[in-house]
Amino acid sequence: MISDASFVRLTGPARRRRRERHVPDRDFLSILVFSVNVSGREIVDCGSHPAIVSRETRQTAIMEKAIGIEDFLDAAQTLPLIDVRSPGEFANGHIPTAVNIPLFSDSERASVGTTYKEHGRQRAVLEGLEFVGPKLRTLAESARALAGQSQHVLVHCWRGGMRSDSVAWLLRSCGLHVTVLSGGYKSWRRRALELFEWPWKLRILGGKTGSGKTAILGDLTALGEQVIDLEALARHKGSAFGALGEQPAPSQEQFENELAWRMRQCDSDQQLWFEDESRRIGQRCVPDTLWQRMKASPLIFLDLPLAPRLERLLRDYGDFAAEELKQCIRKIERRLGGVQTQQALRALDEGNVREAVRIALHYYDKTYLFSLGRRSPDTTLRLEQDDYHAGVTARTLLQLSHTIKSTI
């Protein structure tokens, strides 16, 4: 508790609030949580009374509970993580394990921001108090439920400023242990982008459409290899048919967040496998620095004949409605050509899905072989097989992966 000597003379609205005999809990907690600035000093909890301490003292107390991004991410492996930004900010991009308990709604955040620009900080803070006051109990209860038996949570906002500090202060007053991310979500984004630039030892699995590359990546995982499935992260299988049966794609920023989160869990001294992809996977793009490294990394081309690939694609897409398949064919009409497009659409009208898929495969095979031809032959190996053999193909790939070199 701060001694009486710590009190300073209050003026203006703050003085009037201090004189009130009965301060409503909501207003008191709002003032406590937001730490309204009064001539460079801040209100803090002081038992039964609010006290005024210097901003330097308050920042020292806060920084004792703020940690850097690496320690924060390590802690997030086992502790619940609360993102207090608005729902719109969270939807655009967030640390993958985070749970959104917003201090402001999107409209409230916009309103406070406008007030700040037009009328200054003091009016913006007071407006924020009006929005947040009624939510404090719900916010605290949600955090306590999330904390569980550990009673310890991680908290961050956009840049480690007022929102995370305020929520941390509230939750600590409710008995929780709280750790704040220094630099906020911005520090995570910087770290994510740095991860794409690391000198990863990448291995790329190539092959024509329908070769079963995703299944082989699963086999490699079972053998203890480090694998990241870009198509799973983008929620798209890569071709014009790739969105069928998938959930809506994440934002580009969230795609990068999920990718960086998985890369951070990998050992950069060991092989890391990716499937050979175009830079664009559905609506999402592989970060350019990582994409350039993928293109220069060793690739093993799994060469399977048409028949088993056609059968696999029929298993994957044969049960979708004809109209859905026709929409996919129309997406590649310009590249497929007018005649072949009409043939594929006619085949679907006649219920001949096999013929429609065969026509589409003809286009995709030409496109992939053209792309493969642009790679350095020194970093490419061909593995010919009559079909995909579970487990066996993956073990063969592992043996080959140590015989080719990178051009990086």
* Class by alpha and beta content: alpha/beta
What is the percent of helical residues? 40-55%
List how many beta strands DSSP finds. 15
Largest sheet: 5 strands, parallel
Strand content: 5-15%
- The number of domains is 2
Distance between the termini: 60 Å
Structure description:
It is built from 20 helices and 15 strands. The protein is α/β, with parallel strands linked by helices and 408 residues long. The chain has 2 domains: 4-191, Oxidized Rhodanese, domain 1 (3-Layer(aba) Sandwich); 196-401, Rossmann fold (3-Layer(aba) Sandwich). It has a 5-stranded parallel β-sheet. A 5-stranded parallel β-sheet has the order 10-11-9-14-15, covered by helices on one side. It has a 3-stranded antiparallel β-sheet with strand order 1-2-3. The termini are far apart.
What labels would you give this structure?
single chain, Oxidized Rhodanese, domain 1, Rossmann fold, 5-stranded parallel beta sheet, 20 helices, 51% helix, 15% strand
Draw up the topology in text:
Elements: H1 12-19, H2 25-34, E1 37-38, E2 41-46, E3 49-54, H3 55-63, E4 66-67, H4 69-75, E5 81-83, H5 87-92, E6 98-100, H6 106-119, H7 121-132, H8 136-147, E7 152-156, H9 162-173, E8 177-181, H10 184-195, E9 201-207, H11 213-222, E10 226-227, H12 230-234, H13 252-264, E11 271-275, E12 280-281, E13 284-285, H14 288-296, E14 299-303, H15 306-317, H16 322-331, H17 333-336, H18 338-349, H19 353-372, E15 380-384, H20 392-401
Parallel strand pairs: 4-8, 5-6, 5-7, 7-8, 9-11, 9-14, 10-11, 14-15
Antiparallel strand pairs: 1-2, 2-3, 12-13
Helix pairs in contact: 2-7, 2-9, 6-7, 10-13, 11-20, 15-19, 16-18, 18-19
